[in-house]
Specification:
alpha/beta; TIM Barrel; 11 strands; 387 residues
Length: 387
């Protein structure tokens, strides 16, 4: 039994409260889904990430399975569906504002190509060693970005989402913080956020460091404490180390494929790969400055050459042994994104057996999951809790 299970309500009790309401914990309506006292909905709230329902359902870029990602429409839908946390990815503008985009390359997620006044901004850049051609947030002021509109990033897979193209603008992170506070007051409970620093070494090299302006915003909106309703994340461990010196907000290190090296490692000449970081010594090192890891799902349960799931690794047990929570990414409903053994039919964009896939991952002992379809993940979590 983990320390969490010994010191608080069990996983099934917590999840039952999240899905069925606070009465599942036998507490009044002033308590939140995790059974804590009523949070301060006017700011970052109080409590702990360890009090979140398990499995925690994180709305990946909002409810990006149904709305263009990283828009207030996507975030609102994820919250309305019941996601325990709503995620934002952060990149800077030319004038230093943090905006919510999965990448600084906005070619595929906005209508920038339709703006002749910005045609000359198209450029080819090396971002973390990858050559990209398009339009980039760091070449636009916030006022200029606000003239653009968001669109569906993968219309081939999610054609229905394109009906919302042009409906929303690019939100700033400060706008999201204000939105979360407003929704918290309206709902009487704190809204949890999950913010990622994107390409932090690249931007620092441009004089647009992410961590300092992010920490300033967190302090301004009361989300800079260890008990704040926000989790920070990055694929670059040094970004989390830097933020650990600026704020006490909980931190998570994201982990990609086992052969990959974080870009800050590449720049610093650190030879370690992700495969090294998921070993006990690597996890011990991460635990010295972070509270969790966000591994790709394949680090939890690898796939074979045919794309089928194999045997779970020791990562969950090893991470838990070092006090780290695991929030793997990303579970999507469409066949093309699912393990081969959970695909159904021949249409790659049709939904597969996502409930079956989620059950297998939950059974592996993960603490939460990023999902483009929060409603589906919440139902799967409820099923798992009732077993």
């Amino acid at each position: 039994m983990t320390e969490r299970a010994q010191t608080g309500p069990g996983r099934r009790t917590l999840l039952g409260a999240a899905v069925l309401g606070t009465t599942a914990l036998g507490v009044s309506g002033t308590a939140n889904a995790a059974g804590r006292g009523a949070p301060d909905a006017r700011s970052g709230g109080h409590g702990s990430y360890r009090d979140l329902p398990v499995p925690t359902v994180i709305g990946h870029r909002g409810a990006s399975g149904y709305r263009p990602e990283h828009t207030l429409g996507s975030y609102q839908l994820a919250l309305d569906m019941g996601a325990h946390i709503v995620e934002q990815d952060l990149v800077p503008t030319k004038d230093g504002h943090l905006v919510c985009r999965h990448e600084n390359d906005i070619t595929g997620t906005t209508d920038v190509a339709d703006h002749p006044e910005f045609a000359s901004r198209k450029a080819t850049k090396q971002v973390d060693g990858v050559s990209l051609t398009g339009w980039f947030t760091e070449d636009f002021t916030l006022a200029e970005l606000k003239t653009l509109r968001a669109k569906e990033r993968i219309p081939g897979n999610r054609q229905e989402n394109t009906v919302y193209d042009g409906r929303w603008e690019i939100p700033t992170f400060e706008e999201v913080l204000r939105w979360a506070d407003k929704e918290g007051r309206r709902r009487g409970r704190t809204v949890w956020l999950y913010a990622e620093t994107k390409h932090p070494s690249y931007f620092r090299g441009l004089g647009l460091g992410l961590e300092e302006p992010l920490a300033k915003l967190l302090r301004r909106y009361g989300r800079h404490r260890a008990g704040s309703a926000l989790i920070l994340q990055s694929f670059e461990p040094s970004s989390m180390q830097r933020l650990s010196k600026l704020v006490a907000t909980p931190r998570v290190v994201l982990l990609s494929g086992p052969k990959e090296r974080p870009w800050d490692f590449v720049q610093a000449g650190d030879p370690r790969t992700v495969a090294d970081l998921v070993k006990p010594d690597g996890l011990k090192w991460i635990a010295s400055f972070a509270q969790g890891i966000g591994p790709t799902l394949d680090l939890v349960i690898p796939r074979d050459g045919a794309g089928r799931l194999t045997t779970p690794t020791a990562l969950v047990a090893d991470a838990h042994a070092r006090g780290l929570v695991l929030h793997p990414y990303t579970l999507r409903n469409e066949n093309t994104f699912l393990p081969a053994d959970f695909r159904r039919g021949t249409d790659p964009n049709a939904y597969g057996d996502v409930f079956g896939a989620l059950r297998v991952y939950f059974e592996a002992g993960i603490d939460g999951i990023f999902s483009d379809n929060p409603d589906t993940a919440l139902l799967a979590a409820a099923d798992f809790a009732q077993d």
